[in-house]
Amino acid sequence: MTVAEQYTNPAGHRERLRKRFLKAGRGALADYELLELLLTYAIPRVNTKPIAKALLHRFGTFVNVLQQPYERLMEIKGIGPKTATFMQVVQSSLTRSMEADVEQQLSISGPEDIFAFVRLHLGPRAHECVYAFYLNNSRHVVHQAEVGMGTVDRTPLYPREILKPALVHNATGIILVHNHPEGQPVPSEHDLQMTKKLEEVAALFGIQLLDHMIVTRLQAYSIKKGKLL
Prior knowledge:
- By secondary structure, the protein is of the alpha+beta class.
- It has nine helices and six strands.
- The longest helix has 24 residues, at 81-104.
């Protein structure tokens, strides 16, 4: 029996939370209450408040909770496989929604416009991976794709694999993003060298490398701007 199963959650409390949310939206609930309400759909008939507070205590914020990988969620007492999977589904749903929002934007003026999406999509990854946004002359996203996977501390960048989708989709600009799973969002010497190489190769095809971003769960760094976003 898990810790969660040792608690009994009165139906009236859940109903009050649900009604407050429906009446006034998420602003009517504190972070722990919103998380508590979310957990009730995965852990029925159990008091989820202690679990919600434990998650926030461990990971700091509501957003950080949603960014955690399955294994980290399972470290929390009261979180079982079903609930951890449910949280992953919520995270994936948010990411897919934000992915669609990025594609529907009229234009991307800079890395700030995609910061929220890449932080949620790449920040929690346990290994480095590379994601690319392909833009046309109007700076509209015409394609986006994962273009590389690496180890916990390095991802090889292959210009051919990154540029191939740009040529297929007639893109004239690329915003490249990769994550630092265990470190700070600061470019290594390898990152800077590969960025310069990719920029030079892309220019031969009339394609501009608009930026190369490095993200963690909490921050993002723009190599183009030379600063944290």
